[in-house]
Specification:
The relative contact order is 0.14. The chain is built from 16 helices and two strands. The chain has helices at about 10-20, 25-55, 65-90, 90-110, 115-140, 150-155, 160-175, 180-200, 205-215, 215-225, 260-290, 295-325, 325-345, 350-380, 385-415, 415-435, and strands spanning about 10, 235-240.
């Protein structure tokens, strides 16, 4: 037991890995989950208020595509920026900065008085949202045992589709009861409240405190709350860590990680891209299908089933990876997701069939997308974990921009929604090739104990 080491050296990584989840660790997951919920809720806010804002600012709804794209582009750049910064300056402080940034510019959307101002505010709000993601995912992954890391990270990310569902209900009520501005008042204030909670209640990563700052006194205070009685006041704390000087991003491609990094980015891009394309175009496909009287409510219902499937799939992804290995789980999710995406084309003649198909797409492709996040949290060492997650999520956000644009171009050029879905399915199948490459480049001999660079069996 850890207490036997308490008067000498204490390996904090081993202490965390050998114990179950304490109440303190669950509180860390919960606090970070609040940020993920806010991220999901924001997805519905601008969509619900879009037509009203377009009328007030006197621009066509067709121009709102740039507003949506600005938020996603901001999230992409935020993930790429905040990930490396979190690896250098701490997960907690960068998470708080990102959450405050998101809150302020979401609030300011209620005061946007021109099209260009609206685009700018959405971009900066998205920048904060995207920046928060690698920070809270890396922080949580370093507070849970390795054996359940994938499970916990994917359950945490499932708070994102949960936020979409909760945000849809809340924002629909707010816009009717108080007007469209209230969506952004509430959407801006809640992140600031959460940021205050994070400041007071959230601990910094132990990996960062001990490995980067050498702040052993603060680390011992955290350990006293997490594992009471396990750490003697005179104990010398150690932690598994690599020495990775220089720019964190370059280490995503060093020490045999290059091919695995790129191989992980492809399913990131494909899975999140296809999920977005299905959400955007399924209502239109329903309306155009012969014999189907599909109004807005039918499209919303079908997309709700898609969200439910994604919620379940994303929550299960990490547990499946922890038990079966990443290549099997991601490969199966992408294969079955491709089959269901192809099946959606002929299914749009029936609302129940379309709802079933989109739910299965959400479930299987959601497993693949969330599995990529869980795997990024597992395979990268702590010194570049936020960078690895951040750049992976940037690829995912890129897919969310490119796939709907490509889908629109295909439908515009051919008039065939089924062909578009077949091409989306093909993209998922191609990404399976890259999943097979995961872990194939880690051929160097395992590193010495305590360096944290040995290959992880979960990739198998």
């Amino acid at each position: 037991m850890a207490s036997s080491q308490s008067s000498g050296q204490l390996d904090v990584t081993k202490l965390i890995d050998d114990r179950g989840l304490s109440r303190f660790q669950i509180e860390v997951v919960f606090l970070c989950g609040l940020v993920a919920i806010l991220d999901g809720a924001d997805t519905t806010s601008i969509a619900i208020a879009a037509s009203t804002i377009a009328g007030l600012l006197n621009f066509p709804m067709s121009a709102f595509g740039l507003v949506f794209a600005a938020g996603t582009l901001g999230a992409m750049l935020g993930a790429m920026t905040f990930g490396p910064l979190a690896d250098r300056f701490g997960r907690k402080r960068l998470l708080i900065v990102a959450t405050v940034l998101f809150g302020i510019f979401t609030f300011l959307i209620a005061y946007a008085d021109s099209y260009s101002t609206l685009v700018l505010y959405r971009f900066l709000a998205g920048f904060g949202l995207g920046g928060a993601t690698p920070c809270f995912l890396a922080l949580v992954s370093e507070y849970v045992p390795q054996r359940v890391r994938g499970t916990v990270v994917s359950v945490l990310w499932a708070a994102f589709p949960l936020g979409i569902m909760l945000g849809g209900f809340l924002n629909s009520y707010l816009v009717v009861a108080f007007g469209w501005q209230m969506i952004f008042y509430v959407g801006g204030v809640l992140p600031l409240v959460v940021a205050a909670l994070l400041t007071v209640m959230l601990p910094e990563s132990l990996q960062f405190l001990i490995g980067r700052w050498g702040d052993l006194s603060q680390a011992k205070r955290i350990l006293a709350r997490m594992a009471p009685g396990a750490v003697h006041r005179d104990a010398v704390l150690t932690i598994a860590r690599d020495t990775l000087p220089g720019v964190p991003v370059k280490h995503l491609f060093s020490e045999g990680r290059a091919l695995s990094t790129v191989a992980l980015w492809v399913p990131f891009f494909a899975a999140f891209g296809v999920l977005s394309a299905v959400v955007f175009f399924t209502p239109a496909l329903l309306r155009s299908a012969a014999g189907v009287a599909a109004g807005a409510s039918s499209g919303a219902l079908v997309n709700a089933f898609h969200g439910l499937g994604a919620l379940l799939g994303m929550a299960l992804a990490g547990q499946l990876i922890d038990r079966l290995g990443a290549r099997k789980v991601l490969g199966a999710g992408l294969l079955l997701g491709a089959a269901c995406t192809a099946a959606l084309g002929p299914s749009v003649v029936s609302i129940p069939l379309a709802a079933t198909a989109t739910a299965l797409i959400g479930f299987f492709v959601g497993i693949a997308g969330s599995g990529c996040i869980a795997l990024a949290a597992i395979i990268y060492p702590p010194e570049i974990r936020a960078t690895g997650i951040g750049w992976g999520m940037a690829m995912a956000r890129g897919g969310q921009v490119v796939a709907p644009l490509a889908a629109g171009q295909i439908i515009g050029a051919t008039g065939d929604g089924r062909l578009m879905l077949l091409i989306m399915a093909a993209a998922l199948l191609v990404s399976i090739i890259f999943v097979c490459l995961l872990g194939q480049t880690r051929r160097a001999a395992p590193a010495a104990p305590g360096t944290g660079t040995a290959p992880n069996p979960v990739v198998s």
